[in-house]
Amino acid sequence: MNNTKSTNDNLQLRARELQQWFVALLPSLNTGSLLGDLHVVSGDASFRRYFRAVTTHKCWILVDAPPAQENSKQFVKIARQMAQGGVHVPIVIAADLTLGFMCLSDFGDTSLWSKLVDAQQSVSAQPLVDSLYRAAFDELLKIQLCATSTAHLPLYDKTLLLREMRLFSEWFCAGLMRRTLSASENSMLENVFQFLAEAVMTQTQVFVHRDYHSRNLMYREAQALGVLDFQDAVCGPVTYDLVSLLKDCYIVWPRSQVTAWALKYAELAQQRGIIPAINEQQFLRDFELMGLQRHIKVAGIFGRLWLRDGKPGYLKDIPLTLKYISEVVPEHAQLSEFSDWIRVQILPNLDAALVRATQDKPAGALV
């Protein structure tokens, strides 16, 4: 209880300091006065928090990114690099890297996710959905054409890929599922992780947003989609962002539709010289293996967000994440045992584990 109170007090103090910082910035913005207090827009899966400041003439997004946990310098650098590549990212109006405060242009409240969810309710909305994903492809292609050499991006190398997947063993299996893994299970998982890391590293390497999904894309009427949450960009496999978009952990589409969109992207990427000519079967294999790597990682991250950070909102997204994992066809011997293990040992026990998780409050929980 004391830890929770201390954390909440610190968050409130940071919000007041952010507002004071913005008020001091107002004269240089020529935007009138601040109308009321800041409004919370969202917190995300990191330690960053976003607020909207409403002034006489305009709205702004303010970011609280505690320097001890977040790298605002990288955020500013990547934002400028992507903007130079024609990607529609928020403009960094001002930033205090010491305090971890930023003022950004405002893309509004309508995410691509909300537009897609609305469209799912209508049987006649397919043309709209196709156009929305085409808009997402347009921004993705521009991202992938950004020069990775001048961005000094970290490499999405084998070490990082493996570190991500091992979150699954620690935070999903041992943590959320409370499963003590045997030596043979640990060996099986490590073999799968090694196989996937080596397989995806053979793909064309490009500028990777690293969290390119429907909640990080903002719908703007008659304008290009706005792209958010890009500060963890890396140079890595070309299908990574495509998987994040089409096998989104927050909205699901029929596999046949996902395949059709993936092949449409491949056609566009070949036209722009991003990937070489490649047969459909090979491209879809690359896409599926990349998806398996991502969703193994994400299951671990979602478990950690609750168990370590006290963020329960992502627990409801775990079943879809596991569904994606279970759907990958085990073409390779390294994946067959893993596929059977997920189907027999994990999926039948998942619902009970999630119910137990919602009944137990982790030490880090703020709820």
Describe the structure.
The structure is a single chain. The chain is of the alpha+beta class and 367 residues long. The chain folds into two domains: 104 residues, Phosphorylase Kinase, domain 1 (2-Layer Sandwich), CATH 3.30.200.20; 248 residues, Aminoglycoside phosphotransferase (APH), C-terminal lobe (Aminoglycoside 3'-phosphotransferase, Chain: A, domain 2). Helix content is 54%, strand content 11%. The chain contains twelve helices and nine strands. The chain has a five-stranded antiparallel sheet, sandwiched between helices. Strand 2 and strand 3 form a beta hairpin. Helix 6 crosses helix 10 and helix 10 runs antiparallel to helix 11. The protein is globular, with a radius of gyration of 21 Å. It starts with a helix and ends in an 8-residue tail after the last helix. The model has no long low-confidence stretch (mean pLDDT 92).
Helices, strands, pairings?
Blueprint: H1 2-29, E1 39-43, E2 49-54, E3 59-64, H2 72-84, E4 92-96, E5 101-105, H3 112-120, H4 126-144, H5 148-151, H6 158-176, H7 183-200, E6 205-208, E7 217-218, E8 226-227, E9 234-237, H8 240-246, H9 255-271, H10 280-307, H11 318-327, H12 333-359
Antiparallel strand pairs: 1-2, 2-3, 3-5, 4-5, 6-9, 7-8
